[in-house]
Amino acid sequence: MTATSKRILLVDDEQLVRDVCSELLSIEGYRVDTASDGLDALAMINKAGYDLIVLDVNMPNRFLFITGDLYGEGETLEFFCKGASVLKKPFTRQDFLDSIRQILSRPAKPIAPQ
Is the backbone of residue 29 left (phi > 0), alpha (psi -120 to 50) or beta? Predict the structure, then answer.
């Protein structure tokens, strides 16, 4: 699958971040939709299928991550980071695009509407 056939949902409450990241991804050939919060993201997911969701964790109407970890916060964070890719703001253009390429190179089922 080429970059042009990959569809990405970018979710961030900061307009500037959405604009810059969306432009970077579009230039690279990805099809990009944006949402400003978790509620908007859910509405978008219900309309279209996505190969990747880029999600800012700290924003209004955000998602809640839950765990059954009984071992402590440090191990929960380590597990979360292994299961999900995390990119800390501020990040460089190259770090952002490298992270996108790396994630999309892994086999996965697209996130489809319900």
Answer: left
DSSP code per residue over 40-81: HHHHHHHHS-BSEEEE-SSSTT---------S-HHHHHHHHH
- pLDDT tens-digit series, residues 46-79: 998 899 999 888 877 776 666 665 556 666 666 6
Residue with token string 């299928």: 49
Q: Domain spans of the chain?
A: 3-104
CATH code: domain 3-104 is 3.40.50.2300
> Which amino acid, residue 106?
R
Residues 6+ positions from 52 with CB-CB distance below 8 Å = 6, 7, 8, 9, 100, 103, 104
Pair of tokens at residue 97: 């695009």
Average pLDDT in the chain = 83
How far is it, in rounded angstroms, from Cα 11 to Cα 76? Answer: 23
Question: Model confidence at 107, in pLDDT bands (50, 70, 90)?
Answer: confident
Please report the pLDDT score of residue 72 as a whole number. Answer: 60
